[in-house]
Amino acid sequence: KAEGHVEGEKVENPDTGLYYDEYLRQVIDVLETDKHFREKLQTADIEEIKSGKLSRELDLVSHHVRTRLDELKRQEVARLRMLIKAKMDSVQDTGIDHQALLKQFEHLNHQNPDTFEPKDLDMLIKAVSATYE
C-alpha cells in the first residue's frame, strides 16, 4: 500500500499477472476487514508471512470473515473447475481425473473445496512467494 494514503481509501495495486490474481486480492481485502488480522499483517515481516506463522492467525478472525473466505474459496474452486472443463471440452478427451488436474493449482487446498482454512492461506502465500523468487 502507498504511504500517506487516507484511511478507508482504496489503493489500486498493479495486476500481479497470476492466474489467481482476483482471488488473491479478494482474500487480502476480506482479511484486512478483521482488525486483529490487519494489525498482525502490518507488523509481520516477510519471513513470518512466508513461514506460515501468519496463517495460524486465521483461527482468530471473526466468524463473518471466515464465512466470507469460505465463500471466496468455493467460488475459486468453481472457477477452476470451469477452466478444467473448458480445457477438456477443447480436446474432447475422456477419462481425465479432475482431482489430478486440480492438484496443479497450488494456491488452494483442493481436497477441501468448501472451507478456507489456515492451510489455504499458507498455500496462497507460498504460491505467490514461489512466483516471485
Structural summary, described in words:
The protein is mainly α and 133 residues long. It has one domain (16-132). It contains six helices and no strands. The chain has helices spanning 21-31, 35-43, 46-51, 63-91, 98-102, 118-131. It is globular, with a radius of gyration of 16 Å.
Which key features would you list for this structure?
6 helices; 0% strand; NUCB1_N; single chain; 56% helix; cytoplasm; mainly alpha; 133 residues; golgi apparatus
Which whole number gives the mean pLDDT? 81
Q: Approximately how much helix is present in the residues?
A: 55-70%
The total strand number stands at: 0
Q: Number of helical segments? A: 6
Structural class category = mainly alpha
- The run of helices and strands is HHHHHH
**CA-CA gap between termini:** 21 Å
Instruction: Give Rg in angstroms.
Output: 16 Å
Uncertain runs are: 1-11
Number of domains: 1
| Global shape | globular
DSSP strand content:
under 5%
Largest sheet descriptor: none
Keywords: Cytoplasm, Golgi apparatus, Membrane, Phosphoprotein, Repeat, Secreted, Signal
Protein name: NUCB2 protein
GO molecular function, one term: calcium ion binding
Domain NUCB1-like N-terminal: 6-128
